[in-house]
């Protein structure tokens, strides 16, 4: 199955300010990744091309990193996820930027079932939480995207599963 999954958010800040925030991704002072609610994004050798890491059961390698603009990760797990995901930062005006996250992959039959039933829903919620973190960093209003009932069920199962092991 061919998968293209895109999330975008317009941030009322210059690209340079959003870029500085994105540079904290996967560091000890990460202000983007919603590790309060999700498994943290970690890389064995730091945030650079060739580093292997991921979050939770999702594993990937950084294959492109253009500071201030674009970062691409190639999936290594789960099995059957063949493709990439990426963050891209675009200048819209002097005071407005767009941050996007895109998955482009093909999946095996088994991975397609996993994507459609579980992974997609959790991924969408995680990315919206990350975009909320970016937006909230520059705003006094606290935005929190609501989880669907299915995401709440999946998160409950996921958390209980790991408590027992």
Largest sheet: 7 strands, antiparallel
CATH class division: Alpha Beta
Summarize model confidence as the mean pLDDT. Answer: 93
The dominant shape is globular
| Regions with little confidence, pLDDT below 50 for 5+ residues | none
CATH architectural type: 2-Layer Sandwich
Summed up, the domain count is 1
CATH topology name, in short, is Alpha-D-Glucose-1,6-Bisphosphate, Chain A, domain 4
Helix content: 25-40%
Q: Percent of residues in beta strands?
A: 35-45%
Order of helices and strands: EHEEEEEEHH
How many β-strand runs?
7
The gyration radius over C-alpha positions equals 16 Å
State the secondary-structure class: alpha+beta
Model description:
The protein is of the alpha+beta class and 165 residues long. It has a single domain (2-164), classed as Alpha-D-Glucose-1,6-Bisphosphate, Chain A, domain 4, CATH 3.30.530. It is built from three helices and seven strands; from the N terminus they run E-H-E-E-E-E-E-E-H-H. It has a seven-stranded antiparallel β-sheet with strand order 1-7-6-5-4-3-2. Helix 2 (109-137) packs across helix 3 (149-164). It is globular. The mean pLDDT is 93.
Summarize the structure.
The chain contains three helices and seven strands. It has 165 residues and is of the alpha+beta class. The longest helix is centred in the last third of the chain and has 29 residues, at 109-137.
């Amino acid at each position: 199955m061919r998968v293209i999954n895109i999330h975008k958010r317009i941030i009322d800040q210059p690209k340079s300010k959003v870029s500085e925030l994105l540079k904290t991704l996967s560091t000890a002072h990460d202000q983007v990744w919603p590790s309060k609610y999700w498994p943290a994004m970690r890389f064995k050798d730091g945030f650079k091309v060739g580093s292997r890491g991921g979050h939770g059961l999702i594993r990937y390698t950084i294959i492109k990193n253009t500071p201030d603009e674009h970062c691409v990760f190639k999936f290594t797990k789960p099995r059957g996820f063949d493709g990439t995901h990426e963050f891209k930062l675009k200048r819209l005006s002097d005071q407005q930027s767009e941050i996007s996250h895109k998955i482009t992959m093909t999946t095996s039959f088994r991975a397609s079932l996993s994507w459609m039933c579980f992974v997609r829903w959790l991924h969408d919620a995680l990315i919206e939480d990350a975009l909320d973190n970016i937006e909230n960093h520059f705003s006094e209003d606290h935005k929190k995207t609501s989880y669907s009932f299915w995401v709440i069920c999946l998160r409950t199962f996921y958390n209980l599963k790991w408590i027992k092991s």
